[in-house]
Amino acid sequence: MHALNARMHSELPDLPDGTHHVRLSDGRAAFTKIRSRAPEGFFAAEARGLAALRSAAALRVPKVFAVEEHCIALEELGNGRAGPSDWEQAGSALARLHALRSPQFGFDASGWCGDSAQDNTWDSDGFRFFAEYRLLPQARSAVEAGRLDRADARRVESVATRLREWLPQRPPVLVHGDLWLGNLHACADGELALIDGGAAHYGWAEGDLAMLTLFGEPPPVFFAAYETHAGIRGDWRERAAILNLYHLLNHLNLFGGAYLGAVRGILARFA
Description:
The chain has ten helices and ten strands. By secondary structure, it is an alpha+beta fold. The strands form four sheets. It has a four-stranded antiparallel β-sheet with strand order 1-2-4-3, with helices on one face. The chain has a two-stranded antiparallel ribbon with strand order 5-6. A two-stranded antiparallel sheet has the order 7-10.
């Protein structure tokens, strides 16, 4: 997508895998991520997702300076501490992001949720999209890896066929797609920014909200601002577990059996 400038191209091969803070030849500070064995298309998907999120002009999103197969260079955001007003502004901004609609669910290219490939094939039916391209592939992967037994997989299939019983009909909107609390980054000035955009697509807004409650959560002022600007009630929390089943299955596949209990807990409630 972008070629690295000559100085940066010569520097990056000498840097080990990991994250690095570098200065570009034009003086800009950059945050780089390098993975010599990155899955094919991994950083290209991140660049596409960040570009889509940035074009929404809602929350702050780092600029992409350069991307290659095994590395990406981003605008340096610094590290700060968000205050109450920063959280309130971020909640309102996420509502603005979610106001951007698409005729269909999906995205114009596949993505990555962590190191799991994410199929973004366009689909007009959100329930089918969430079942066929989110829940069921993760369940199949978990069974193949021996991390989920077939009885559990059948329960996932049962949930997938009954989504309409628990989830309301909602339009496809631009979502981050992997919005755990750590992907709301507090910049040097305290402003909150979206990072790690490889899972961005058009999906259910409640999916982003649900994941923001999965591994810790923002302060109440964030959700109050979101709900006010989005014109919704707080009953989305009642449905969060079903939407988070996808992310827990993904974590089961990526990190192992520590997440099996949480997966089974949701299946016991809904399957």
